[in-house]
Amino acid sequence: MNNQKVKKILLAEDNLADVELTRLAFSDLSLPIELVHVNDGQELLNYLNDAELSDIALVLLDLNMPKIGGIEILKMMYDDQEYKKLPIVVLSSSLHENDIITCYEYGANAYVNKPIDINDFNTVISSIANFWVEINLLPVFNTTKV
């Protein structure tokens, strides 16, 4: 299963160390992906507003971000008919049951705890990327923007 078209994985993360770890993990993969990083929820919404949604294979979403947090982003995307079609994996250090439940209630497709160990982190990122880029089929998006 090898899609030749480059798909974007949108990383919404304000911790630059986690961004760098994620970049390194993706650079080790031989998948047709482009990692796009935004620092906070507002930047994520701005990016999505201008993006070709069909090019986005996945949104990796941190919960604790400035301006607009991850749960608020999930709520906004859940209420939007086009954005709610985007696969969202919450990648968070939080293990609070309320966070997990709330994320699923607002449309998260998965909730993954950020591993502390670098090898575990790479394994998790590799598994996420392989599934969402190589295996998962995306819905058709409305190509006309209002």
How would you characterize the overall build of this protein?
The protein has about 150 residues and is α/β, with parallel strands linked by helices. It has one domain (about 5-135): Response regulator (Rossmann fold, 3-Layer(aba) Sandwich), CATH 3.40.50. Helices cover about 40% and strands about 20% of the residues. It has 5 helices and 5 strands, in the order E-H-E-H-E-H-E-H-E-H. The chain has helices at about 15-25, 40-50, 70-80, 95-105, 120-135, and strands at about 5-10, 35-40, 55-60, 90, 110-115. A 5-stranded parallel sheet has the order 2-1-3-4-5, with helices on both faces. Strand 4 (about 90), helix 4 and strand 5 form a beta-alpha-beta unit. The termini are far apart.
Largest sheet: 5 strands, parallel
Widest β-sheet, arrangement of strands: 2-1-3-4-5
Helix content: 25-40%
Q: What series of H and E elements makes up the topology?
A: EHEHEHEHEH
CATH class: Alpha Beta
How large a portion of the residues is in β-strands, by DSSP E?
Answer: 15-25%
CATH-scheme architecture? 3-Layer(aba) Sandwich
- Rounded to the nearest angstrom, the distance between the terminal CA atoms is 34 Å
- State Rg: 14 Å
| Total beta strands | 5
Poorly predicted runs are none
Class per helix and strand makeup:
alpha/beta
| Molecular shape | globular
> Going by CATH, what is the homologous superfamily?
Response regulator
Count of domains? 1
Kindly identify the CATH topology: Rossmann fold
Mean pLDDT: 90
Number of helices: 5
